[in-house]
Known about the structure:
The complex is a heterodimer.
Chain A: H1 2-56, H2 64-79, H3 83-104, H4 108-111, H5 114-149, H6 153-159, H7 170-176
Chain B: H1 5-38, H2 46-70, H3 72-80, H4 90-105, E1 113-117, E2 124-128, E3 134-139, H5 140-145, H6 148-164, H7 166-190, H8 201-214, H9 221-234, H10 237-248, H11 273-276, H12 280-285, H13 291-301, H14 306-321, E4 328-331, E5 337-341, H15 343-347, E6 357-360, E7 366-368, H16 373-384, E8 389-394, E9 401-407, E10 410-414, E11 421-424, H17 428-433, H18 443-468, E12 486-489, E13 497-501, E14 506-509, H19 513-523
Parallel strand pairs in B: 1-3
Antiparallel strand pairs in B: 2-3, 4-5, 4-6, 6-7, 8-9, 9-10, 10-11, 11-14, 12-13, 13-14
Helix pairs in contact in B: 1-2, 1-7, 1-8, 2-7, 3-7, 4-6, 6-9, 6-10, 7-8, 10-13, 18-19
Amino acid sequence: xxxxxxxxxxxxxxxxxxxxxxxxxxxxxxxxxxxxxxxxxxxxxxxxxxxxxxxxxxxxxxxxxxxxxxxxxxxxxxxxxxxxxxxxxxxxxxxxxxxxxxxxxxxxxxxxxxxxxxxxxxxxxxxxxxxxxxxxxxxxxxxxxxxxxxxxxxxxxxxxxxxxxxxxxxxxxxxxxxxxxxxxxx
Amino acid sequence: xxxxxxxxxxxxxxxxxxxxxxxxxxxxxxxxxxxxxxxxxxxxxxxxxxxxxxxxxxxxxxxxxxxxxxxxxxxxxxxxxxxxxxxxxxxxxxxxxxxxxxxxxxxxxxxxxxxxxxxxxxxxxxxxxxxxxxxxxxxxxxxxxxxxxxxxxxxxxxxxxxxxxxxxxxxxxxxxxxxxxxxxxxxxxxxxxxxxxxxxxxxxxxxxxxxxxxxxxxxxxxxxxxxxxxxxxxxxxxxxxxxxxxxxxxxxxxxxxxxxxxxxxxxxxxxxxxxxxxxxxxxxxxxxxxxxxxxxxxxxxxxxxxxxxxxxxxxxxxxxxxxxxxxxxxxxxxxxxxxxxxxxxxxxxxxxxxxxxxxxxxxxxxxxxxxxxxxxxxxxxxxxxxxxxxxxxxxxxxxxxxxxxxxxxxxxxxxxxxxxxxxxxxxxxxxxxxxxxxxxxxxxxxxxxxxxxxxxxxxxxxxxxxxxxxxxxxxxxxxxxxxxxxxxxxxxxxxxxxxxxxxxxxxxxxxxxxxxxxxxxxxxxxxxxxxxxxx
Lengths: 186, 535
């Protein structure tokens, strides 16, 4: 009888372990998926920038400095090796783009150029997607961290060596985002 | 989110069954009534009649439910004549982009389509059905009146209705009873004045009543939840508050969006006192919470008050109206009025110059383009790309900075817009002496010069004393010293009118005037008997 009880308790513990383990794995996969989403959107931004620069450069030949800053910031962001340097380079790029959009306001001919307007809309949309993807990632990371740290999950997480994920440099990035949302439309 | 998507779906399913039972009850009563009236002998066997009515009602309501609940989204789209966004339209493209952005922040959980409702009203709705289709519909009016962040907030709000599952029950209810009730409303409008409505509409009328009754099951709380979720997604409570504020003061589509669809909309198309009321009955019957309360909650999140919002919106409207708001009309080189243009479109006109006549809207006053400070920014911007611009010397006609140009080997100032030239007196003989060195003057200038001289000879003969006394009315002020410039002939031998400043020793040549003078010199060289007089 006692043997049966022990067996029942052990199998309950096993089921409980499996449930917690699977739950953690599922959230970790969500977090990793959200990280990939940020990558997808960053790639989209990197692809759009050369188009925008080549379209506006004719009309903005006296803003070479601003354009060069955008191009070099993009190059740095594309080649950044680690997530930390990547976040920093992307923030630089966001700043450079914000400056470019602000300068573009001074060129009425650009405002009436449909190509430029379309590219501007695509970039604004991409900037939003990046910030939304980052927001989702950070929310999921917060959720994941809580799950790892609460009792009894912390026992399982230390048993299976789960590591908490890093937040995506929200503080630095949030400071510079609003400038990009400037719309030339109206 | 307090509940998962699946939890909410389960939670809502019982309401959909209630809708089904109500529908069946309606058919049951109607069939029973018809059976008693049309088949009096059947009424003698009540059990058989009840059984017949029950089976027929089950069958008809089953078919009705299946067609409306399974294909509800298509039904809503048809009812509102909505269209998918046009990929070639910039604003529609923006809507598609915004939807994708909201999909990103929602973790790409569900595929949502967007449609545009061809109405000038300001409203938006969401619909989903048992087939798995989900749409967000936005009116053309809302798309064109709202800014990008405001549209983002609206799409996020509607996306939450779809993602949380609460829009499934509203869509099923709307589709079961709304489509037909909209039909009733339309026919009621067309048959107004007739004493009897069409008998076939009796069923639809019953459905309309039932639809209104169903509102009791639609909680107004879901709008608060969707507002909160929209803020969580976009982190911008002010944009949503601004939108609701604008919607509360605009036409929301009453008459276009049938009352059957009201529960799908972000705000009730019809402004009713019930919606703005609070309390047990209002909570029970109304589908939407008071807009004022929704705005207040959002503003509290943003630490603002309604007065602050009011001032902000007014200031934004004013700033939008001043630089690009007015419609400009411009007179083209063929002396025809063209327009309306906004500032950006005006700047793209190749023929726009500071001297173009411009009118704003329907105003009577017409003025030169350079006199309007907003239009003048276009010329400033054009010249700012020109490094040769000399900001301290402006064209006496167009009032724009002149550019230094090399002409016949010497430096003169030229106007990019009216093609006039400002030349220091000391340089004029140089230019005239070099007249035939490069290119001979063109036929056009030659003809122009001949006509001009002929006209001026007549003028000269008539007004000789006045011209010689330099008493003609000054046209321009000197770009350097601002004193009046005197208009007169270059000399008695070369009858080309020019403007001179006797203080600074400079001469202003209008378009082609310098070339005409050169042409006359070419035709009548310096060595000829009438020698060149220096000014």
